[in-house]
What we know:
47% helix
Amino acid sequence: GERLTVAEVGTRYLRHLDNAGRKPVTLIAVRGHLDHWHAPFFADKALDAIRPDDVADLVALMRAGQRPSGIARSKPLSPKTVRNAVGTLNALYRFALRRGWATRNPVATVDLPDVQTGDEIRFLEPAEVEAVAAAAIDGPYESIDRALFLTAAMTGLRVGELIALRWRDVDWPAGRLRVRRTYDSRSGYGTPKSRRSSRSVPMADAVAGELDRLYQSARAQGDDDLVFADPLSGGPLSKRSILLRFRKALRSAHLDETHCVHDLRHTFGTRMAAAGVSMRTLQEWMGHRDIATTQRYDDYAPAPQHERDLVAAAFAPRDPEVPIGVPI
Length: 328
């Protein structure tokens, strides 16, 4: 068979993903893993010459904050980022095995760093959401930011979904926002993150009021015009600029300025769970592909009423007059 390197198979793998219709943002991520890590680290080694120990050495390099070149240094990669990068290498080997370019997958037996999910959820309290919205910085972005912060917290939309929202997606009569697409500065507009991410979510009166005020003052009110259009360019907002303004507003409101905009999405998840919304409904509203992702919010759900009574009733002594095995 062909004696191919990681870089050579990577080129073919990217072409395969492109032909399969994978999202541009996926192709960008895979190309980044190949260019920054896999191709330079494994260099001219043939696929079958790479051992599990070699892959483990790459993981150690990533965790140490070093680059394969040995010159450029970066901060240590998080466990999640390491797992994503090694996942690309694993997928590449599976692709190569199916085509006979490799006879074994050295990635399969490598231990990867654990991703701690239990303590990752950071969110704001409702009063903090109101405070940060009220503290939106003065100037052309003030009304946009105020509406965007409130909408993010009260609908759970991802930042890219908010940026891509059009007026046609605001269903005033039904009181819902319809999530049909997302925006990424590298790949432009696209369909939402997963099939489940195309969805509709309830639009509370407070959100409807904010969006109505925004609509009344909008320069462009057509169905295809952006709800949160950049007031200076008329185009999509910059995620990085949103974060910078969000953190200025947090500082102005005397709140923890290490929060990121995604924490507003977590705010929606935790508040809905606390309000007793079922995990299955919350999964639909948040557009999670996997219910396990939604279940991170389960800890915030209210405990069933009268728990002690429920347990006591379940283990109540039987009526001695009723024989065991006879339904009561």
